[in-house]
Amino acid sequence: MTTTPFGAQTAARATAVAARATDLTKVYGQGETQVVALDAVSLDFHQAEFTAIMGPSGSGKSTLMHCMAGLDSVSGGSARIGDTELTALSDKKLTQLRRDKIGFIFQAFNLLPTLNALENITLPMDIAGRKPDKKWLDMVVDTVGLSGRLKHRPNQLSGGQQQRVAVARALAGRPEIMFADEPTGNLDSRSGAEVLGFLRNSVRELGQTVVMVTHDPVAAGYADRVVFLADGRLVDELREPTADAVLDRMKRFDARGRTS
Ligand SMILES: Nc1ncnc2c1ncn2[C@@H]1O[C@H](COP(=O)(O)OP(=O)(O)OP(=O)(O)O)[C@@H](O)[C@H]1O
Ligand SMILES: [Mg+2]
């Protein structure tokens, strides 16, 4: 068990479910062009845990994250954040929930070029008319290692620094859960390691819950567990993954073009 200022809190929440998919199904299109992107996926994401989602291209990873984050509608089954059933919410309530409880990090950083780092970080809260919790914000900025860069605009920052601003932005509102879709896909390995280290720290030290899609076994090695999707189904799970173990599991996908 780690001893951090948040250690006790983290331990107490370790088994609580932050998000839950139950028989989650997503079908795109109709008739001949119909694609079953998610086929009855049931999966829990525990609080203060770092989960990586892996699987071949087209296996439904982004779809799963979008449905869980309320960015896409579902065709069947249920998606819950905490105790809230997303499929039962009106558009307005869903927007509120996304804003207040969910952080999302995309492959492209999506920072506003005219705002400096700090302004980018607090933008969603400024729009929502929420005042940032100063202590939390300081801690996020500190953990993300950007204290000396807050006045810089995105074009004055490296790729890794920009993505860390995006991560800090997602964390600033203290979301119940953070979803990241290939957050290191556009970064060199050193910048990628910075961002991954930060995501891991946010789980270990700040008690955050993180769900990350990645194709990179090294990135998955930062997580507490890896779940594997294939053809829209959950097919396997590894706990305390190492990059080698993940790579081994991925080879089994490649050998047959699909999974067992
Ligand atoms: N808007 C859409 N309309 C129709 N089909 C879609 C749409 N979005 C995704 N799909 C299909 O759903 C399936 C799952 O797509 P998804 O984007 O979730 O895959 P992924 O695992 O994230 O792949 P990648 O690793 O390439 O990002 C694919 O077959 C894809 O073509
Ligand atoms: Mg994807």
Description of the molecule:
With 260 residues, the protein is of the alpha/beta class. The protein has nine helices and ten strands. It has helices at residues 7-13, 61-68, 91-101, 117-128, 134-143, 159-172, 189-204, 217-220, 243-256; strands at 17-28, 35-46, 50-54, 76-81, 84-85, 102-105, 177-181, 210-213, 225-230, 233-239. Strands 6-7-8-3-9-10 form a six-stranded mixed sheet, sandwiched between helices. It has a four-stranded antiparallel sheet with strand order 2-1-4-5, with helices on one face. A hairpin with a 2-residue loop joins strand 9 (225-230) and strand 10 (233-239). Mean pLDDT is 89; it is low at 1-13. Magnesium ion binds at residues 61-62.
Keywords:
binds adenosine-5'-triphosphate, 6-stranded mixed beta sheet, binds magnesium ion, alpha/beta, 10 strands, 260 residues, 9 helices
| Small-molecule binders | adenosine-5'-triphosphate, magnesium ion
Terminus-to-terminus distance: 35 Å
| Order of secondary-structure elements | HEEEHEEHEHHHEHEHEEH
Summing up helix and strand content along with how strands pair, one would put the structural category as alpha/beta
Largest sheet: 6 strands, mixed
Q: Helical element count?
A: 9
Instruction: Based on Cα principal axes, name the global outline.
Output: globular
Strand order of the largest sheet: 6-7-8-3-9-10
From the alpha-carbon coordinates, what is the Rg to the nearest angstrom?
A: 18 Å
Unreliable stretches, pLDDT < 50, 5 or more residues? 1-13
Helix content: 25-40%
Organism: Streptomyces varsoviensis
Keywords: ATP-binding, Nucleotide-binding, Transport
Protein name: ABC transporter domain-containing protein
Domain ABC transporter: 19-256
